[in-house]
């Protein structure tokens, strides 16, 4: 077992785990901030645990709040905009 703790970042990101097949990123985005369209070569799971985010995917937009989880296949284009100051965990896995 290994414990990894996220830091208070003030609107930035940090890779908590960064390995060949696994990347776990703690992402903090401030209200109004946008992450432009991008994709990953890995499967992605996004877990929001604070705030509110407009998550734009290939099949439309979803407003996500704490308790919501987004899953994406590799190379799925997506973008997001913080509707409130928000904290997310982004887990990327290559199987």
UniProtKB/TrEMBL annotation:
Keyword presence, DNA-binding: yes
Signal peptide, first to last residue: none
Pfam families: AraC_binding (PF02311)
Domain AraC-type arabinose-binding/dimerisation: 32-84
GO terms under biological process: regulation of DNA-templated transcription
InterPro entries in the cross-refs: AraC-bd, RmlC-like_jellyroll, RmlC_Cupin_sf
Molecular functions per Gene Ontology: DNA binding
Annotated TM spans: none
Key words of the record: DNA-binding
Record bears the keyword Transmembrane helix: no
SUPFAM superfamilies registered for this protein in UniProt: RmlC-like cupins
PANTHER family in the cross-refs: SLR8022 PROTEIN (PTHR37694:SF1)
Protein name per the record: AraC-type arabinose-binding/dimerisation domain-containing protein
Organism: Finegoldia magna (strain ATCC 29328 / DSM 20472 / WAL 2508)
